[in-house]
Request: fold
Amino acid sequence: MAKLCEICHQERAALRRPKTLQSICRPCFYHVFETEIHHTIVQNRLFAPGDRVAIGASGGKDSTVLAYVLKLLNERYQYGLDLFLLSIDEGITGYRDDSLETVKRNQQQYDLPLKIVSYEELYQWTMDSIVKEVGLKNNCTFCGVFRRQALDRGAMMLRADHIVTGHNADDIAETVLMNILRGDIARLQRCTEISTPGEDGCIPRSKPFKYTYEKEIVMYAYFKKLDYFSTECIYSPNAYRGYARAFLKDLEAIRSTAIIDIIRSGEAFQVKQSVKLPTQRTCQRCGYIASNALCKACVLLEGLNRGLPMLGVNRSAQSRADSTPIPSTTTSAVTQQDTSVPTPHTNSAATGNVVSTTAKDCIKTIDNIEGKRCIKKAKTHWEKGKAYDAQYKSLGVLGIEDKKAMKKRDKHKKLADKFSEKEFQIWSKYHSKQVKS
Amino acid sequence: MCDANNDSTPAPVSKGRQPKRSNDICHKCGLTKPAVRIRHTYYCNPCFKKSFVNKFRSTMGKALRLSSSHKPRVLMGYSGGTSSRALLNLVGQYSRHEFVTDDRDKFAKLVVCHIDTTGLFPEQPHDTEGIRQSVEAAYPHVTYDNVPLEQVLTLQTTNDPLTGGWLMELSPVSDAVAGDFCFIPRRTLTETQSSPAHRLTELFQAATKLSTKEDLLEHLKFQLLVQRAIHHQCDYIILGDTCTRLAIRTLANTGKGRGFALPLSLGGHPTWFNGIEFIRPLRECLVKEAALYNHLEQLQVFPTPSFTTLRPTKSSINKLTEDFIYGLDRDFPSTTSAVTRTAGKLKASDQVPNNAACLLCLMPVERDSVEWKTAITVRTCPNSADPAPTGESTVTAPPHPVEVNSADSPLRLTNYFCYACQTTLSEMRPGAQLPLLIYNESQGAKDPKESPVDVGGDQDTTMGGSEKVEQLSTRGRLWKHSELYDQIANYLLE
Reply:
C-alpha cells in the first residue's frame, strides 16, 4: 500500500513536501532541500571564494540546520568559505544560557570556531535588567534592535566578510505582513531582499533560507536528528507580531503555498517615486547605519539610561510629543549637557560631540517626552500633597496636630516643585526669548 | 502654617502646551453632544452625515473632473450590500444638480449594474426583485441592468476566433506541480448542449477548494462588470469598496501572490481596461461608517450570498483575512487605514507588460512567474543531471504555427496566466471549462509564444487534493522532539 516517491519512483515516500505537496522519500528530500539552498546561494552570488562567513547561531533549529547545511555544501560544492559560529548572549536567564550550551555542543560537532558577544559587554544592560525596567510588553523591540547591532559588532571582531542568519521563508512572509499592517513602506520594500548590501563599512548579511519553509527545516532536523534547543523565549513574543504569525499559520493551513506566494508578492512591491522614503545615513553617536540622526539602539539606550524606557518604543508618546513642537528658532539653546550623557557605546567618544541640527531634533524629542513625564509627576505629587493637607487640616480642627501628614505634605509639595522646576528648565531651554521677556 | 499657601497654589501646568480637546462635544461643530465615534473623532449625527458625504464628493470630484461640457457615462456596481447601498444613495444624489433646470443630470448615462448570483447559491435567500425596486423606485433617472452571472460564459467580446466565443477546457495532461497548463478550446454554443446556468455550477464544482471558488467568483464578476461597461460604452466604473474592504483585499491578495497586480486592483489604471477607469469613492470610509449612514438614512440592505456564509474562519483565505482584519481593528483601530495607505503608496511594477492581461483575472501577467517558481524549487531526481537553476528548459517551447480550429489539440497557455491564477488553476479539476477573455484585441493573435504542443503519454496528474482544512497549532512553549513531530506530522507519510 506504500506510496512511491514522486521524484525517484523507487523508494517509499516518507513525507509530503509542504512546498509542492509532492510525496517524496527521505534521500530525495535531503537532495531537494540541500540543492534548493545551493541554488539560492549560487543564483544570488551570496559568497565569494575565501570569504570569512559568520553564521548567526542561536542554538535553535533554524541556525543549527543552517550551520549543518552550510558546512555540508561548503565541502560538497567547494565554496571555499571559512565558517564561524557567532552567538549573541542577550542575558536571559533560563533561556539563552541553556541555548548557548547547545551552540557550544554544535561547535564541537561541526568543528567550527565560536564567538559569543553579550549585551552586557556592549551595552551594560542585560535583557533581564531591561525587562525589569520596561516590563514584558515591549521588550522584544530592545532585544531585536540590540541584536542586530551586536551581530555586526561580533562579526567585526571576527573580521568576517559576511553574516548569514537562519531567517526562513515563514519569517520573511511574516515580516511582509507585519510591514503592511504597520504601514512601514520603507521596510516593506527592503524586507524581501535576500541580502543587505555591505556599504559604508557594514558587513553584508544574507538569508540563505529565504525560500525554505520552516516546516521543511523542522523535518530536516527531525530526520537528521540534529542537536538543537527548542524552547521559545521566556519573555512572551511581541503582541503585534504574534497576530501576524497566527494569521500566517492559518493561511498556510488553508493553502500551503501561501508562504511562497507572500514572498512573491513582497518581491513585486515597488514604491511610487512620489512617496518620501527615509534615507539611510549613519548614526552620529556610534556610526552605525540609521534612518535618523541617531540610530534606534542609541535612542533606546538613551531612554534606558535616562529612566524613560518607553522612549523610541511607544509610538503614541512620540507622535504626541511631535504634535506640540518646540519652536526651532532657538536651537542655540541646546547645551553641551545633552551630548555628554554617558553612553556605553564603546566607539561613541569620537563622534559623540559632533551634533548637527538633526541630532538636536532627536534630543529635542527626547527632552519633550521627558518634560511631559516631569509635569505628570509634578501633578501627582501636587495632588498627594493636597490630600495630606486636607487630612492635616481636618485633624487640626479637632485640635490634633498630625505631624506625619504635615511631613508628607511638605515632602510631596517639594517634589512637585522640583519636577515643575525641571520641566520649566527643559521648556526654557527651547524658549529662551520668551523667558527673557 | 502654610495652609493658605497650599490652597492658593494652582495645579502644576506645563507651559506652552495646548490643552487636549474635549470628547464631550462634537469635534466638528463644537455645539452638540457627540453621538458617533469614528476612529478618534467624535461627531454628532448631522456632522457625521455631512463629513461622510463630503468624503465621497471630494473623491468623486477629483476623479471625474466634471464640467458642463464633460459628461461621462458611468456604470456603478451594485450588490445590495452595506457599502454599495450607501454608495447608490450617494451617487443617486450626486448625479443630479440640486436645482431643477433643463439639464439636471451630471452624467450622460448612469447605469446601475447588479450581477445576479442566484444560480450559484440556490439555497441562500436572494431578493432580486427587491433589489431592482430599491433602485428603480428611488432613482428614476438611473438605468438598471440586472445581469445573471451565467452570462459570462456566453460572452463574445472580440471577433478573434481564438478567444471570443470559446470556452477553454482544462486538459488532464496539465501538470499542476510543474506549473504547466494545457487547454482544449470548446465552442460555447455548438459543442456543449447544457444550459449556461448548469455549466456555471459545473465550473464551480470543479474547483477543489473554497478559496479557489471565491477567487473564481471574484474574477468572473469582475470580467462581467468590465464587459457590461464596454457594452454600455461607459468611461467609468464606480465601486463601493470601503477602506475596510480594500484592506482585506490587500492582505488577501498578498497572501495569494497577487502583489504584482495590487496597485492595479486597488487603484485602477486609466489605460489598462480598454480605457475604463475605476473609482472607489468610499475608499476612505470604514464599512462601519457606511452601515451607520444606511441606518441614519433608513436604507434597506440586502444580504449578499457568498461561499463562506456561516462557515468557520479557516474555511477560505478571504474569510480568514476578513476575520483577521476585523479582529485587529478592534484592538488597533488604525489598522485598516494603515493597510490601505500602505497599498496606496505602491505603484505598478516596472515589469508590467503593456498588453499581456491574464486570461482569468484580467490583471497583468508577470513575465518570469514560471522561471521564478522553477528557480526556487527542485523537483528532479538526485541521479539525473542537475538542471540549470534558471529553469529554462520548461519555458522555451519550439514555436509552431498556430492552428486553432483543428479540433482537440491542447493549447499550452501557462504563460497567459499570472502567478496567482496559475495557483488557482492548479486547484481546479481537469475538465473545468473556463471563460477566457482577451480584451486587447491585438494581443491574442500576435504573441509568438502561443504554441499548441502535443503533450501525450503521462496521464498521471497530481491534483487530487481534497478540500480540507488543516489545524496546526503553534502555541506550545517548549518544543519537544515529539511535539516537533506533531508539527510536521501532517506531511509525514510513515
DSSP finds 15 helices and twelve strands in chain B. Residues 210-231 of chain B form the longest helix (22 residues). The two ends of chain B are 87 Å apart (CA to CA).
